[in-house]
Structures are given as C-alpha cells and as structure tokens.
Amino acid sequence: MKLWKLFTIPLLLVGLLGCKQEKVTQETIAEHYQQPSFCAEYTVTTHSGFYTEYRLSCTVQNHVSSVTILQPESVAGITATVQGNQAQMQFEDLSLDALLPEIPGYAPMDMLHQLLMDLQTPPAFSGREQGRVTLEYRSTAPDGAELLKILVLNEETLEIQSAECYLDGSLILSLKMETIQWL
C-alpha cells in the first residue's frame, strides 16, 4: 500500500507541473513583439558578394531602432536610426539618409528592425524543437525574387536567438544574438 503512494504522488506532481506550461502560439509571439523595448548586441554576417561580419549594438523603443556598429573597427561608431523602411545614419557631426536596399531587412543595419516587424504578423510556418521555436516568413520582392526569413526564438522567453535571410534560395544575411536586455 505504501509503495503505491510512493509512485503515485511523484507521477501526479509531474502531471500537474507539465500542465502549467503554456503553449507558444503565433498570437503570443505577435503580442510579445507589438511594443518591443530592449537593448541587444548581436552579430550580422553578410554572405553575398563578400563575407563580412558586423558586431552591432541596438536599442529598440517605440518602433524605432538605434543601431551602432561596434566592429569591424574601420566602420565602428557609425549609428543608424531605423523607423519603418527609412534610416538616418550618423557619424560624429555628419548625418545623412541611408540608402537601404529595395528589400527591407536585407542590410545589416536594418535586419533586426525588420525582423521585429515580421514578428508582429503570423509566419508562413512554425515548428518546435529542443526549447526553440522556428518561424519562416515567405514573401516576394518587387522584382519577383523569392524571399525567405527564418527566425529561431527561445521557446520560454521568446527572445530571438538567430535568423537567416535568403533571396532566391541564396543566404544573404545571418544574425546571431549575443545578449538581449528588455527595458
């Protein structure tokens, strides 16, 4: 009789604790990113034309991203303020409009900003594996090129862990989040 209790109580506890975990849905992700406000450091790597790695710092508040290049040293200190599909670049006393590519989110300076905008809409596909949520966003560029963005989020915190942007099947940019602090 006591042996039965010894096995039943732990099984009930495991069952109850398992029921408390909320399932991540597209709606919870979209809600989480409606008004993002955080500071982050991350690396964006360009894979087309030439391979370059940028280490960036970003502060996001009220749908405005302030992105500063930390590395490579030759362009460190350049800052861009990104809002919507527009960007303004600053370096010391110089300020000018940034010429972003026709496809939003396909430049190192606006990649994270556009990914945050994407997260506010349901993805084309999502999957779960080992504490991660993978989202795919598919669209077509004005010239007819096929666009694919793949985002990997931490399933518990919903923080971006990594992302990749493809153009007609070729990897253009990849992002790896280093640190993120919610404000």
Q: What is the H level of CATH, i.e. the homologous superfamily?
A: Lipoprotein localisation LolA/LolB/LppX
Percent in helix: 10-25%
The total count of helices amounts to: 3
CA distance, first residue to last residue: 54 Å
The CATH class label is Mainly Beta
3D shape: globular
Summarize the model shown.
This protein is of the alpha+beta class and about 180 residues long.
Give a written overview of the molecule.
The chain has an eleven-stranded antiparallel beta sheet, covered by helices on one side. It is globular and about 50 Å long. The protein has helices spanning 2-20, 26-32, 111-118, and strands at 38-46, 52-61, 64-71, 79-83, 86-91, 94-97, 125-129, 132-140, 146-154, 160-167, 170-182. The N and C termini lie far apart (54 Å). Helices cover 19% and strands 47% of the residues. The chain is of the alpha+beta class. Strand 7 (125-129) and strand 8 (132-140) form a beta hairpin. Mean pLDDT is 86; it is low at 3-21. It has one domain (26-182): Lipoprotein localisation LolA/LolB/LppX (outer membrane lipoprotein receptor (LolB), chain A, Clam), CATH 2.50.20. The chain is built from three helices and eleven strands.
